[in-house]
Specification:
Layout lengths: L1 H16 L24 H10 E4 L2 E4 L6 H15 L8 H23 L20 E5 L2 E4 H13 L4 H4 L20 H13 L5 E4 L2 E5 L1 H4 L1 H4 L2 H11 L10 E4 L8
Parallel strand pairs: 6-7
Antiparallel strand pairs: 1-2, 3-4, 5-6
Pfam families: DUF547 (PF04784)
Protein name: DUF547 domain-containing protein
């Protein structure tokens, strides 16, 4: 029994370290720049307005307070997005679509399993969380959260700020933004999210001459370039970090982002 537990812990630890690579799914790499139509995210905005609360460095979700009616509305919103083929829209509209869909599904998963201590408790026996599970079908394709993040968002837009946009329902994660993403506000929200995270202790903690970074910068190091590139990225949003040097340690809090 002890050997089984050890093997399981080893598997989980490897899974955490071996974060998914950016791997383009060509089917989704298509857009229509001439289409000026927009996708409504008002239902998602209404949910955020009702159930997010700021607490220090954290933006928390009042999962326990979500009404049955609002759970149904969230499900309906996600269902409405599943009926849209995002490839028919502009690239900017698509980005907002995928980020909002990812975050809404994540909240839905937590609500469906609530009460729960951590999103990592979801998934099968040998799963670390629900990210590889099929969660939605769009344009005839079954998608997991990993597909949305690592096969669509990361490889198509090649923007490291995406890591500040998608939320994994954990305290260590960049905060779930209080505004739904739209084609018009995406740049502003990405910069806001980056600045907020990098200036928080969960993003970058300086203590007694030591530097502790979020594990995001370790798991997805390729997205931020070499060490110099990472420091430049961090300093863009927190200038005092321009002189960072030496070794970094990494930390991440998987406790649920709940109020």
């Amino acid at each position: 029994m002890t050997r089984i537990v050890t093997l399981l812990l080893t598997f989980i630890s490897f899974h955490i370290v071996a974060a998914p690579k950016s791997d383009l799914w060509p089917f989704w790499h298509s857009s229509n720049s001439s289409n000026s139509a927009t996708i409504s995210h008002q239902e998602w905005q209404s949910f955020l307005d009702s159930y997010l609360i700021k607490d220090g460095d954290y933006t928390l979700v009042k999962y326990a307070s979500v009404s049955h009616q609002d759970k149904l509305k969230l499900n309906q919103y996600i269902d409405s997005l599943s009926k849209i083929d995002p490839r028919a829209y502009s690239s900017r509209e698509q980005y907002a679509y995928w980020v909002n869909l990812y975050n809404a599904i994540t909240v839905q998963l937590i609500l469906n399993a609530y009460p729960i201590e951590s999103i990592t408790k979801l998934g099968g026996l040998f799963s670390f969380g629900p990210w590889e599970d099929g969660v939605i079908k769009v344009a005839g394709k079954d998608l997991s959260l990993n597909d949305i993040e690592h096969r669509i968002l990361r490889p198509i837009w090649n923007d490291p700020r995406t890591h500040y946009a998608v939320n994994c329902a954990s305290l260590g994660c960049p905060n779930l933004q209080s505004q739904a993403f739209t084609a018009e506000n995406t740049e502003q929200l990405l910069d806001k999210a980056a600045k907020e995270f990098i200036n928080s202790d969960k993003g970058v903690l300086l203590s007694n001459g030591k530097t502790q970074l979020s594990s995001i910068y370790d798991w997805f190091a390729d997205d931020f370039g070499n060490k110099q590139g990472l420091v430049q990225h961090l300093a863009k949003y927190r200038p005092e970090l321009s002189s960072l040097s030496g070794k970094f340690s990494y930390e991440y809090d998987w406790d649920l982002n709940e109020k």
